[in-house]
Amino acid sequence: MICDRTNGILVLIIIALLLCHLLLVNLQPSSIKTSNATLDVSSDASLCLVDCQPTLAVVMTVHVHTQLPSVLSRLLTWREYPPCRHHDNSPAKCNADLVIYAENQAGSVLACEAIHRHAELSTLLPVWGLSLQCLHADLQPSEDKWPRGPSIAFYKLQDMLASRYDYILHLEPDVTPIRAGWFQEAQRLTRLYQSLHGKEGVWMLGSIPLVADDTRRNRPIGDRVHLNGNGLYHLGSAGFRTYLKQVEASQRLDTKQLQTSPRGNAYDVDLLTFLLHPSNSELLQQVWHRFVASSYIQNRWRSQWSKSHLLRRYPQTYLVHGGTEQP
């Protein structure tokens, strides 16, 4: 009888050890081959708990010689819709960085001096709990041209900020807030997707083009469903940073069937079409869930929109990119 019990206990111990081994094997980091290199797409096993708060910064890009007045006027709209709020919608301190990212050093100095000298903005930034940081892309005159210039600046920005922030909220001067607390909502979204997918979370969260334009129906899929460049980026993810470098280096990849713009001219379209390329089909299966189309920000570029309509129909929309606001 004693031997039978002992044998039974040993069998249970062996089964438990086998189960632990299988669990550990399944949690080992995995990697896959892309058309350029091996990309680590693991990290799902390490979950971010409810109290986890990744670092997040607001980055506003600006071409100073053409957009400086727009930046100043856009920042002033944050008075009505502050980035962080109390329950009564009064401003709360975000305790975060506001990075002004210009095309070159002269532009960076000019932009930040204009903000510091602005009587109202110099008072509002401390109220919002935003610390002004000034960076530039160091674009050469030959690079400082649309559309190639913004793409060069985008990839340089990722290298500059990867060691400083987990996430950035990347905004152009034509992004309009329509609800208070839009920075807090971005923080909530980073926590949400880390609770769903582990610390790797979401790589990019933004909006596909939401333009009522019949001509878009005949455009390649990359033009129609890419995530616009205004949105959240997970720079703290080593996997995403590797992905960005692979996309940047893929200028010779043939994606003519997937997009109208030449590769390297529109980084946001490139980020999608690289993934859709047949040579990266396995990568697509592994990381598609890292790219999230969200109503948090709406890409209404070159269209007309009504704030009252968006507020009624889209309760989760906080920011609108581009377009013309109508009464």
Structural class: alpha/beta
Q: Count of DSSP E strands?
A: 14
Regions with pLDDT < 50 over 5+ consecutive residues?
A: 18-30
Give me the side-by-side strand order of the main sheet: 5-4-3-6-9-8-10
- Helical amount: 40-55%
Most strands sheet: 7 strands, mixed
Head-to-tail CA distance between termini: 86 Å
Radius of gyration: 23 Å
Proportion of beta-strand residues: 15-25%
Mean pLDDT: 87
Helical segment count: 11
Described by the principal axes of the CA atoms, the overall outline is: globular
User: Order of helices and strands, N to C?
Assistant: HEEEHEHHEHEEHEHEHHHEEEHEE
Key features of this structure:
327 residues; seven-stranded mixed sheet; 11 helices; 14 strands; 17% strand
Could you give the topology of this structure?
Layout: H1 2-26, E1 31-33, E2 38-40, E3 56-62, H2 64-76, E4 96-102, H3 105-117, H4 119-128, E5 130-136, H5 148-161, E6 167-171, E7 175-177, H6 182-197, E8 204-206, H7 221-225, E9 231-233, H8 238-248, H9 267-276, H10 281-287, E10 291-293, E11 297-299, E12 304-306, H11 307-313, E13 319-321, E14 324-326
Parallel strand pairs: 3-4, 3-6, 4-5, 8-10, 11-13, 12-14
Antiparallel strand pairs: 1-2, 6-9, 7-13, 8-9
Helix pairs in contact: 2-3
Walk me through the structure.
This protein is α/β, with parallel strands linked by helices and 327 residues long. The chain has eleven helices and 14 strands. It has helices at residues 2-26, 64-76, 105-117, 119-128, 148-161, 182-197, 221-225, 238-248, 267-276, 281-287, 307-313, and strands at 31-33, 38-40, 56-62, 96-102, 130-136, 167-171, 175-177, 204-206, 231-233, 291-293, 297-299, 304-306, 319-321, 324-326. The protein starts with a helix and ends with a strand.
